[in-house]
Design brief:
The structure is a homodimer.
Chain A lengths: L6 H12 L5 H8 L3 H13 L3 E8 L8 E9 L6 H9 L5 E7 L5 E7 L2 H11 L6 E15 L8
Antiparallel strand pairs in A: 2-4, 2-5, 3-4
Helix pairs in contact in A: 2-3
Chain A binds a DNA duplex through helix 3.
DNA sequence: AACTTTTTTAGAATAAAATTTGGTAATTAA
DNA sequence: TTAATTACCAAATTTTATTCTAAAAAAGTT
């Protein structure tokens, strides 16, 4: 397998990011190849891990997930496996959809989806603040999201 | 069009979030219906906007996007259309893949992808800090991401 | 409770797309 | 230059999506 991707591969990645359900036929026409080698390239991109997976994007608000927040978490590093303890706990909370280890005042940035304020309170009271290594946390409620590209900016 | 979704619809949403390229045949087997009504339900979910779109998820690191950050931005509200000015500028920056209007000390939280530190510096110097209404900003570099569900937590 | 209307479904037929196959041109390595 | 590898296309085959029809189920009405 060639290590490098060529322009055609980048085009494929761009198109599949934009429309994950484009047919192989259409895709082949867009990139200027016939269906067979197009499919072969897509399979290679999947096998080699450049394409990790495919997902439907749903409308969260329509589904009643009214509250979206980011939570900045600061940890208490008394124990030497503080981070692992935190991650083990956080990974079990289904409302937490993202968990990033970051630089700056906070140690972690979490993204959280809940139905309403009551659910948010329960999440904070019963789950986040119960994690032993959590020192402090600050909530950023998302009032609106004006940009959310499901697409990563690629060259070419 | 019925306003409410039933259990079968939620199952479909869950499965399509997990695998956006599942065939209609497989999907129908998973939810226990025949292909025809399954497809009809999927189309309804698409038409009514519960499903917004489909996307391939790519491996950012393999593609050379080595730097991912969140930037907290505080605005200077001297003008009365401060927010609109900010949004207009930010929407033109392709490295900014997310833009959230949030509560707390910061006004906006941005997610940014760049190739390397040099690119990051250019982004900051030439773009972010050039926006007239930006008062201050703070960077959180993402060192690692331990959880990133492309899936929204649904009931049922 | 019987009837009507509406909705949902399965199954068959058709259309479209994916996938495989075989062979050829182009590129790379020896 | 030759051999080997790779990438490609065109056509055949298989699989899947889609449409259509009619039956069943559910909901509402008299």
């Amino acid at each position: 397998m060639a290590a490098e991707l060529d322009k055609t591969d980048f085009k494929i990645l761009k198109l599949l990011q934009e429309n994950g359900r484009i047919t192989n036929l259409l895709l082949s026409q867009e990139i200027g190849l016939s269906p067979a080698p197009t499919l072969e390239r897509v399979r290679k991109l999947e096998m080699s891990g450049y394409i990790k997976s495919y997902h439907a994007l749903v409308d969260e608000e329509k589904l009643g997930l009214g509250i979206k927040t980011f939570i900045q978490v600061q940890l208490d590093f008394h124990k030497n496996n503080t981070i692992q303890i935190f991650l083990d706990e956080v990974n079990q909370i289904k409302e937490v959809t993202e968990c990033h280890h970051v630089t700056g005042q906070a140690d972690f940035l979490l993204k959280v989806y809940v139905n309403d304020i009551k659910s948010y309170e329960r999440l904070i009271m019963d789950k986040i603040s119960k994690i032993s290594v959590v020192k402090t946390f600050q909530t950023m409620m998302i009032m609106s999201t004006t940009k959310k590209e499901p697409i990563v900016p690629l060259e070419y």
